Amino acid sequence: MAGTPEQEISATPLVTEPAGGTRTSERREIAKSASLVMLGNLGSSIMGMVRQIVVVAIGSSVAGPFNSAILPAQTFNDFLINGSVSGALIPTFNDFSAPEKRDELRRIVFTIVNLVLIVMFFAAVLYALFAPYFINFLVTGYKGPEKQLTLQYSQIIFFSLLALGPFAVLLAALYALKEFAWPAFATASYHVGIIIGAFAGSLLGVRYYGHLGLAFGVLLGAVGEIALLLPGIRNQRLRYMFVLDLKHPALQRILKLYAPVALSFLVSMGLIFFDQHLASLTPGDGAANYTAMRAATTLIQFPVGLVAAALSFAVLPTLSAHAREGDMERFKATLLLGFRIGLLLMIPAAAGLIILRVPIVDLLFMHHKYTAQNAALTAVALQNYAYQLPFVAIDQLLIAAFYARKNTIIPVTVGIIGVVWYLLIALPFWRTVGMPALVLANTFQNAMHPVIMLILLRLAIGSLHLRSTIPTVLKILLSSAVMLAVAWGLQLLLGHIPLFSLQHLLGQLLTVLVAGGLAGGIYLGLVLLLRVEEVGLVKTALLAKLGRK
Questions:
Q1: Using one digit for the tens of pLDDT, what is the confidence trace for 501-519?
Q2: 363, 368, 390, 420: most buried by Cβ count inside 10 Å?
Q3: DSSP-derived secondary structure for 485-506
Q4: Does residue 119 sit within a domain?
Q5: Quick one: angle between helices 213-235 and 60-77, nearest 10?
Q6: pLDDT tens column, 326-344
Q7: What is residue 99's DSSP assignment?
Q8: Number of domains in the chain
């Protein structure tokens, strides 16, 4: 909070032009960086969508176990290293980002990489031994063959951490050095590996262990992520070092920053596993319900990765520099710019996913063994998840703001308290309402987090000048409301035309393209007509990154 000590290491000035020019240049830099990460995340999100389409098409009896099997490795990776990227690694690496400190940065980065490799190896071996007991709890409601498949998948997938752990460290180093291109596009490799595994497995068949192709695809994708970081690592002269300098002061600083975050991830791990446990026991088919939740989550993660995560990663280095220099006015201006861009993109994204949920889900997922009943469950989950999107955009930026001030305790504490919001809805209703109750519980939890964080940040640094954003937010809400009405009306009209029937693939595609395209075009036209300044920033940044002036 306000009493957080400032970093001792002085910052190299970002620019040397006058204050007015500095702010304009800085805003453009943030918009360009965010746009580049957005483009990379767009590619990754598209591949993630294709991956989920391929997996669910195999059927919920395979998709359910596979999605459940990823959880142990994913949550352990988040707990041990991935969760420290924003809160500890980027702010610390940023202090050593000057060219003259590159060798010291290398020493720190590869000390952590080597340490993570050692820990991940022993963790994977231990997990292979104790997995049967853990999986029995995690998917209690699954049928016998589904449980066995979940166990086999999870034991293989856990070894992907030998690549995913170092990847997170190297990703943080490149982001701290403002090398955004390769990290942004590298994450797509993970999904590509799973897709390759699915197709290879289907060709090999059960006789040749093809049913395990998805799990081996995870290993392939994890290695591919590291490979795609190599050009960026070379650009920034981060050659590998065989070193384990555990006494370096930067490691102690990282541990101090990350200790509260690690506690939060421990609580989050427990909640994630509990959520999976409840999902497997929900009325109906537990595997089908959980598959619907994961398919809907993939759709939600599309705008989250494209907008919220991209903005927070792009803004964090600049926020860290302002916090280190004690320039709170520029810190607040940067944060408010992020708020406005986030809401500009996330409010219409939420509205579009809610109103077009049925044709979107049918178009993307209702193929092969994924039935109309499965698609209907997914559409319900998607609607209930989508309400949280604007809140998530603000939340990611607020977390970045606290992390930039070297304060990880507040986000962690609020996150732990957020578990209560989840339990208030999940526990009373999971047996009766079923899967939708678990989704709403997650949405309520994620919506309350930024509300509390915003109040605490204001107490820490004073007024954020939020009133200055009200005109922009009102324009965005008005434009989104018109977009929503147009999309709803078009769906009703098109539903009477056989060509647009949702009973066939062409009709689903045309409904999404026509209703979604026209509604989106109207939204864009309205925000331009209402002169929402941030539209121009995003447009300029995207064109610059695409090589057009």
A1: 988 899 999 999 999 999 9
A2: 390
A3: HHHHHHHHHHTTSGGG-TTSHH
A4: yes
A5: 40
A6: 778 888 888 888 888 889 9
A7: G
A8: 1
